[in-house]
Amino acid sequence: MRVAIAGFGVAGAARLSAYRRVVGADVVAVIDPSPERRAHAAALDGRIRQAASLEQALDGGPIDLVDICAPPVFHAPLAVQAMEAGCHVLCEKPVGLDVEESLRMVACARRTGRMLYPVFNYVYSPMMRTLAKAATWLREPVNARFEIRRTTHAAGTPGWRPDWRRDPAVAGGGILLDHGTHCVYMATRLLGGVPYRVTCTTRDGAGGLDETVSARLDFARGTCVIELSWAGTERRNLYRLDGANGSIAIDDDRVLIETPSGTETAALTSPTASGTHEEWFPDLFADLLTHLERPGGEPDPLEEILSTARVVEAAYASAVRAGEPVEPV
Questions:
Q1: Whole-structure pTM over 0.90, yes or no?
Q2: How many CB atoms lie within 10 A of CB 163?
Q3: pLDDT tens per residue across span 86-134
């Protein structure tokens, strides 16, 4: 499969490295408006053609998949252009800035028959695999708690707005739209379906975007409390599931499982070990290929894009109303 990486910042450069682990994927082009970033790509791999725009890349030779690693404001224009040109699309989160934009992107995928696949890469993390396995034996109700602490936002490349995550015109939202997207699709997978109610409060930081978030998602199976911060004193990830049969807690690289028969501890690779998570990518790409070869598999990537966008948008709506409950629609 011939791949073009659109956006060669931190994520794009990491993706080029990740593709080296994927059999059958060949990065043939890198797209970035910055001459500096294109030069950096050329220095990493001189065989890859460089392009300042998607049009230029498409004119240069066949492309099967456009992997969008650009900041969120560019996702929809690039994705629609790529699908209209006959390319499949792999898109970083958040796929759309909001529900309306996500609906337009999904409609384009359905109309053109092209794949629009989200980089919901935490699905393939060691911690999510561990949590998913535990969710099968915990028994309802299952109550989840996710705490994501960062000392600040993730920085971009020095050559192009390193603090773009603080710019509403580029990021579209703060930590809720950024890391909160990961938490939402993880919660919907672990608790089985879309929450019927969302409550949320936020506090803004530099740039006027949300930097701390407290949210609660109510599901038929249980609840998920999500605490996010770009203003913490440390970088840390804590995940916990409690059910009728016991509990599991993951504190970065430590796992504690408690059941009526006793306590078990284990170790795993913490997601804080890397900001780009290249090691999770081959399994994600394999799932993309599975959906291409056998359309209609579960979960449907398009439906998961929409359900995630609806929950995030409901959380923002609740925050605007000082934490009043909102139903995702």
A1: yes
A2: 15
A3: 999 999 999 999 999 999 999 999 999 999 999 999 999 999 999 999 9
- Rounded Cα–Cα distance for residues 195 and 328 (Å): 7
Q: What domains does the chain contain, in order, with CATH numbers?
A: 2-119 (3.40.50.720), 122-320 (3.30.360.10)
Say which amino acid occupies 232.
Answer: G
What tens digit of pLDDT does each residue of 140-161 get?
A: 999 999 999 999 999 999 878 8
Strand ranges of the sheet holding 49-51, from the earlier edge strand across to the other edge: 49-51, 26-31, 2-6, 65-68, 88-91, 116-118
